[in-house]
Design brief:
The chain has helices at about 1-25, 55-65, 90-105, 130-145, 205-220, 240-245, 290-295, 360, 380-395, and strands at about 30, 35-45, 70-75, 110, 165-170, 180-185, 190, 200, 230, 245, 255-260, 260-265, 275, 300-305, 310-315, 320, 340-345, 350-355. With about 400 residues, it is of the alpha/beta class. It has a single domain, classed as Metallo-dependent phosphatases (Purple Acid Phosphatase, chain A, domain 2), CATH 3.60.21.10.
Length: about 400
């Protein structure tokens, strides 16, 4: 009996070791370059089905070649499907394969978070169970087609949502020490608010506890506090308290319920650098995420979700940043459609951030973005560039 147990134990250890080795092979070590810089391209709300719009894929490809980011973060609502599709799983897989092909061909590492629409291409409901079931399948497809270039993983499948994880960035000066940490947080899909109506979900308490645990481990292993950045699809709830005042009752289209409060939709635009194309849409309930981000040394939290918003504001010492949508399949604005390039500087809390628009890229010499384009043209791109530069002057850099 003891011999049998020993054999089983050895088998379990071998399987466990193989699993860890496979995981280690998948995770590429991120590090600051010789100049102490690390570049991230944030692409949110590609939100396309199969086949993905050619101009979107070409914009991504040309941006990778021009700026050579160390990491791409897909910010949620990455792919969607048709409700009339007879094979939603197969179509979703083909769409993900098409998107991942850009990164593998350009030899660019990427990770991702999920949004409120990713699961809807397959799921029949917005339940948490359907959300998690589908997103787990989708994560597997990204890992399959992204291969070694996909760094996304599910750190703990008991946590709310799917795919919450961290990626450490190592020092260029002391290669065995972590110099920065990146959080990828699943902000979920939908959940009931205190008003009894379905609203958007948010990062949950168990995810916040996970972040605190990982932070403590990083501090213990590296002997110092580690700066971090967070990426998620749905913006933190505090944005509403920062930009709007509360009202005691619903006022139709003039008010909005989230954070378990009703807000009058007249924003204080002096609080942001950038512009609002729509009212932000945070979760129905605020679980205190921003307090946690502030406590653990997070420099900034980046969101998407609201396709026409491009702004930065600081709340509780954390930069709250919204990146506009990259989509041509869903709604957007020609002057801001694109991605955000973020440059971290080793040993500093400062970072550089700029919006890279499709309009600007399409007008560059040698660009192939407009070749065969169905959703835009030269005139629209010229208008987009002019409007974008005007808004930068009037509204501040976003």
């Amino acid at each position: 009996m003891k011999k049998a147990l020993s054999v089983l134990l050895c088998l379990a250890m071998v399987i466990s070791c193989c699993s860890m080795l496979a995981s280690a092979d998948r995770i590429h070590t991120l590090s600051f370059d010789a100049n102490g810089e690390f570049k991230i391209l944030h692409l949110s709300d590609i939100q396309d089905d199969y086949p993905i719009q050619g101009e979107t894929l070409q914009f991504i490809r040309e941006t990778l070649r021009t700026y050579k980011p160390d990491l791409v973060v897909l910010g949620g609502d990455n792919t969607v499907g048709s409700s009339s599709d007879n094979d939603p799983e197969g179509t979703a897989a083909k769409c993900i394969e098409q998107l991942c092909k850009v990164f593998t061909e350009e030899k660019t590492y990427f990770t991702l978070v999920f949004g409120n629409h990713d699961h809807q291409q397959i799921a029949k409901s917005n339940s948490e169970a359907d959300h998690d079931r589908v997103d787990s399948y989708l994560l597997g497809q990204y890992q399959k087609y992204g291969g070694a270039y996909c760094l996304a993983y599910d750190a703990d499948d008991s946590l709310f949502g799917v795919g919450t994880h961290n990626l450490p960035i190592y020092s260029s000066k002391t290669p065995d020490k972590v110099a920065y940490n990146l959080w990828m947080l699943d902000s979920g899909g939908y959940e009931m608010g205190a008003d009894g109506e379905e609203g958007y979900a948010a990062v949950h308490p168990d995810q916040l506890a996970y972040m605190k645990t990982v932070t403590s481990r990083l501090v213990a292993d590296n002997g110092t506090n580690i700066r971090s950045m967070a990426f998620q699809h749905i913006i933190v709830g505090e944005i509403m308290d920062e930009l709007y005042v509360t009202v005691p009752t619903k006022l139709g289209f003039l008010s909005k319920f989230c954070n378990d409060k009703e807000y009058l939709l007249i924003p204080n635009l002096f609080k942001i650098s950038g512009f609002l194309g729509e009212a932000p849409c945070p979760g129905a309930t605020n679980y205190g995420e921003l307090d946690t981000l502030s406590q653990i040394g997070t420099v900034a939290v980046f969101s998407g979700h609201d396709h026409t918003n491009a702004f930065t504001t600081q709340i509780k010492g954390v930069d709250v940043v919204n990146t506009p949508g990259c989509t041509f399949h869903s709604y957007g604005q020609i002057h801001s459609r694109g991605g955000r390039l973020i440059t971290l500087h080793e040993g500093s809390a400062k970072y550089d951030s700029e919006i890279l628009t499709l309009s600007e890229a399409a007008l560059q010499k040698g660009s192939a973005i407009l070749e065969g384009a169905t959703e835009t043209n030269v005139a629209a791109c010229i208008f987009g560039v002019i409007l974008n530069r005007f808004l930068n002057l009037v509204c501040g850099k976003y």
